[in-house]
Specification:
Number of domains: 1
Mean pLDDT: 96
Order of helices and strands: EHEEHHEHEEEEEEEEH
Strand order of the largest sheet: 2-1-3-4-12-11-10
Number of helices: 5
Radius of gyration: 15 Å
Shape: globular
Structural class: alpha/beta
Low-confidence stretches: none
Number of strands: 12
CATH superfamily: Class I glutamine amidotransferase (GATase) domain
Bound molecules: glutamine
Strand content: 25-35%
Largest sheet: 7 strands, mixed
Oligomer: single chain
Length: 197
C-alpha cells in the first residue's frame, strides 16, 4: 500500500491523516526524521510556517526533508507547507526548504479576510472545489516549467513543480478529497518510476 507521511511537528496533522485514509492509503505521522524512510510521499501541513521551521531545526529535519524531495519523492505543502517549500518569500531574506521554483507572499489576502471559503476550479483535477483559506499565502511568481493549477482573484493558489505540489488553502478541512487523491496518484507514479530507475 502507498504510504503517505504527514509532518507531525505542528498544525493540521490529524485532518490530513483522515483525508489520506479516506482515499484508501496509509498515513504515517512523522515525528522523527528516520521515519521518512518508511514513506513514499510527504505532506507538509498548514499551521504557522515560522513555528514549523523552528521545530524543523530543533528536531534536525532540515537536511532530511531536502534530501527526501531531492530523491524524487513527492511533497505536498498546504498553506504553511507552501511557504516552507518556496524558493523565495516576499520581503524575507531567507526562504526555508527552497525545493519549489516559486516566490510566495505570506498572509497575503489581507486582515479582513483572515479566513474565508471560495469555490475554485482546479485544472484537470476538480471543478467547483470548496477551498478553505486561513491567513493564507499565495504564490506571486512561478519559474518556467511550474504548472499553475488554480487561481483565485488573479492570484495563484495551487501549483505543481515536477514532484512538488503546493496550495494556499486547506484541502484537508472538507470531505472533498479530490486534491489529496491527485497527490496520492503523483506518489504512486513516482513510486513506480523510482522502482525502475
Ligand atoms: N500564515 C501562516 C504562515 O505564515 C500560514 C497559515 C496557514 O497555514 N493556515 O505560516
Amino acid at each position: 500500500m502507498t504510504k503517505i507521511g504527514v509532518l507531525g511537528l505542528q498544525g493540521a496533522v490529524r485532518e490530513h491523516v483522515r483525508s489520506i485514509e479516506s482515499c484508501g492509503s496509509e498515513a504515517i505521522v512523522i515525528k522523527k526524521k528516520e521515519q521518512l524512510d518508511e514513506v513514499d510521499g510527504l505532506i507538509l501541513p498548514g499551521g504557522e510556517s515560522t513555528t514549523m521551521r523552528r521545530l524543523i531545526d530543533k528536531y534536525d529535519f532540515f537536511d532530511a526533508l531536502r534530501e527526501f524531495g531531492q530523491s524524487g519523492k513527492p511533497i505536498f505543502g498546504t498553506c504553511a507547507g507552501l511557504i516552507l517549500l518556496a524558493g523565495e518569500i516576499d520581503g524575507q531574506k531567507d526562504a526555508h526548504l527552497q525545493l519549489m521554483d516559486t516566490k510566495v507572499k505570506r498572509n497575503a489576502f489581507g486582515r479582513q479576510k483572515d479566513s474565508f471559503e471560495a469555490e475554485i476550479d482546479i485544472k484537470g483535477i476538480a471543478e467547483n472545489f470548496n477551498a478553505v483559506f486561513i491567513r493564507a499565502p499565495y504564490i506571486l511568481e512561478v519559474g518556467e516549467g511550474v504548472e499553475v493549477l488554480a487561481v483565485y482573484q488573479d492570484k495563484i493558489v495551487l501549483a505543481q513543480d515536477r514532484h512538488y505540489l503546493a496550495c494556499a488553502f486547506h484541502p484537508e478541512l472538507t470531505d472533498d478529497n479530490r486534491l489529496t487523491r491527485h497527490f496520492i496518484q503523483m506518489v504512486e507514479e513516482s513510486k513506480k518510476e523510482l522502482a525502475t530507475s
